[in-house]
C-alpha cells in the first residue's frame, strides 16, 4: 500500500509556472512537501503581482489567532475636518418636568400666531361691548323721556301690570303690595325690552277706543362697525336699499267695536257706559316727500289715495288721503303743531283700514258633479 501511495504521488513531476507576461499574472513556485510523513503537497508562494506590483508574503495562519489591536487604524480618509451636524432627535434636549409645569417646556416663540390674533379679538370684543352698551343707554334715555307722557295717556306702559300678586298681598298687605307693584311697573327699566342689540320694544294699553300700541325702536349697529359701514356704502349704489337710520315705529290698534273679542272683561260694570267705538274705514296719511314714492310702492293701502299738499303743513310734507273731508277732520291744530316740531325727523303718519300688502286674487271653480 505504501508503495502504491508513493508511486501515486512521488512519480509526479513538479509544475513550473509560466513566465510573467504583460497582463500582470502571478508566478507560482514548484510544489514542495510540507511534511514528509503525510505526503501532502502545498504551494509555496514566492511572489504575487497585480498590475505589475509585488505583494508581501502571506502571513502565517498563526498570526490570525492573536487578539486584535485595540487601537483603531487611522485612515487617509479622515473625518476630523468635517463639520459637525446638528442632532435630528429632540429626545433629551428638554428636561422632563411635571405635566402642570408648562412654562418649563414652552417659550414665547411657540405662541407667535396667537400673539398676532389676540389683539384683533380683543378689539372686536371691546367694540361689541361698547356698541351694545351705547344702544342700551340711548334706548333707556328715550324711555325715561317719554314714559311720563305715555303713563298719562295709557293705564299700563310696559310689560308689567301695576297689580299686586296674591303672594305679595298675603305677605305685606294689600296697600303695600299695590304700591310696590305700581313702583315696579313705573320703572323705565321694566318698560323696555331688548329684542336684539339694535332693536328695542315696549307696549302700552288701557285707553278708550285704543286696544293697544306697540313701539319699536331701531338703532344703529354700533356693535358692528363693518356692517354699519357696508350698509352705508350699499345705499350709495342701490336706490332700493336706503341707508339705515335710527327710527321709532309706533303701531296703534283700534277696538272698532271688537272690545269683547280683544278684552273679554270689557262690557262689565262701569265699562258699559263707554260709547260705541265703531267707525267708518278710510285711508289717510301725512308723508315726507322724500319717502312718498317708496311708501307708495311698499304699502298697498297708500297706493289707493290721492296726493295733495296742504297749506297748514310744512312744505316738505304732503297729504295722501281718499277724501278732503277726512283730511280736514284729522288735521287738528295739535297734530299740525306736532309735525312742525318734529321737523325732518318726521317720516310718516298713516291711518288705514286696509292691509299693507295687496290681497291675492283667487278664482273659485265649482266641482263637477258626475251622474250615477
Show unreliable segments: 11-32, 40-59
The secondary-structure element order is: HEEEEHEHHHEEEHEHEHEEHHE
DSSP, total strands: 13
How large a portion of the residues is in β-strands, by DSSP E? Answer: 15-25%
Using the alpha-carbon principal axes, give the shape. extended
Number of helices: 10
Describe it.
The protein has 372 residues and is of the alpha+beta class. The chain has a domain of 49 residues. Helices cover 31% and strands 17% of the residues. Strands 5, 6, 7, 8 and 9 form a five-stranded antiparallel β-sheet that branches. A four-stranded antiparallel β-sheet has the order 11-12-10-13, with helices on one face. Strand 11 and strand 12 form a beta hairpin. Helix 3 crosses helix 4. It is extended, with a radius of gyration of 55 Å. About 11% of the residues have low confidence.
Question: TL;DR of this structure?
Answer:
The chain has 10 helices and 13 strands. By secondary structure, it is α+β, with helices and mostly antiparallel strands. Helices cover 31% and strands 17% of the residues.
How do the strands and helices of this protein lay out in sequence?
Layout: H1 2-10, E1 32-35, E2 40-42, E3 49-50, E4 53-54, H2 112-153, E5 156-157, H3 166-172, H4 174-186, H5 188-191, E6 193-196, E7 199-207, E8 210-218, H6 225-237, E9 247-254, H7 259-262, E10 283-288, H8 292-298, E11 306-308, E12 317-321, H9 324-330, H10 333-342, E13 348-352
Antiparallel strand pairs: 1-2, 3-4, 5-7, 6-7, 7-8, 8-9, 10-12, 10-13, 11-12
Helix pairs in contact: 3-4
Amino acid at each position: 500500500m505504501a508503495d502504491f501511495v508513493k508511486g501515486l504521488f512521488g512519480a509526479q513531476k513538479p509544475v513550473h509556472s509560466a513566465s510573467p507576461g504583460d497582463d500582470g499574472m502571478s508566478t507560482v513556485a514548484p510544489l514542495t512537501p510540507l511534511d514528509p510523513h503525510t505526503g501532502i503537497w502545498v504551494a509555496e508562494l514566492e511572489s504575487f503581482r497585480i498590475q505589475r506590483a509585488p505583494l508581501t508574503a502571506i502571513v502565517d495562519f498563526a498570526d490570525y489567532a492573536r487578539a486584535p489591536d485595540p487601537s483603531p487604524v487611522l485612515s487617509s480618509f479622515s473625518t476630523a475636518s468635517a463639520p459637525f451636524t446638528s442632532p435630528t432627535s429632540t429626545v433629551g434636549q428638554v428636561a422632563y418636568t411635571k405635566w402642570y409645569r408648562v412654562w418649563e417646556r414652552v417659550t414665547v416663540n411657540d405662541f407667535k400666531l396667537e400673539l398676532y390674533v389676540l389683539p384683533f379679538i380683543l378689539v372686536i370684543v371691546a367694540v361689541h361691548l361698547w356698541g351694545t352698551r351705547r344702544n342700551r343707554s340711548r334706548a333707556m334715555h328715550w324711555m325715561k323721556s317719554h314714559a311720563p307722557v305715555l303713563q298719562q295717556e295709557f293705564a299700563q306702559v310696559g310689560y308689567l301690570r301695576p297689580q299686586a300678586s296674591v303672594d305679595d298681598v298675603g305677605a305685606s298687605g294689600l296697600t303695600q303690595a299695590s304700591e310696590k307693584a305700581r313702583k315696579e311697573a313705573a320703572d323705565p327699566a321694566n318698560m323696555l325690552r331688548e329684542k336684539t342689540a339694535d332693536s328695542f320694544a315696549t307696549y302700552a294699553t288701557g285707553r278708550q277706543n285704543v286696544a293697544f300700541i306697540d313701539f319699536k325702536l331701531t338703532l344703529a349697529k354700533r356693535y358692528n362697525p363693518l356692517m354699519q359701514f357696508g350698509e352705508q356704502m350699499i345705499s350709495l349704489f342701490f336706490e332700493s336699499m336706503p341707508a339705515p337710520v335710527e327710527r321709532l315705529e309706533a303701531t296703534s290698534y283700534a277696538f272698532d267695536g271688537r272690545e269683547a273679542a280683544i278684552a273679554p272683561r270689557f262690557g262689565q260694570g262701569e265699562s258699559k257706559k263707554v260709547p260705541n267705538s265703531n267707525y267708518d274705514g278710510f285711508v289717510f296719511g301725512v308723508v315726507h316727500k322724500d319717502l312718498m314714492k317708496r311708501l307708495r310702492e311698499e304699502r298697498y293701502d297708500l297706493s289707493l289715495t290721492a296726493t295733495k299738499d296742504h297749506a297748514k303743513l310744512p312744505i316738505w310734507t304732503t297729504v295722501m288721503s281718499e277724501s278732503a273731508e277726512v283730511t280736514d277732520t284729522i288735521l287738528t291744530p295739535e297734530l299740525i303743531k306736532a309735525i312742525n316740531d318734529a321737523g325732518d325727523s318726521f317720516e310718516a303718519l298713516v291711518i288705514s283700514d286696509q292691509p299693507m300688502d295687496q290681497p291675492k286674487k283667487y278664482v273659485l271653480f265649482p266641482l263637477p258633479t258626475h251622474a250615477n
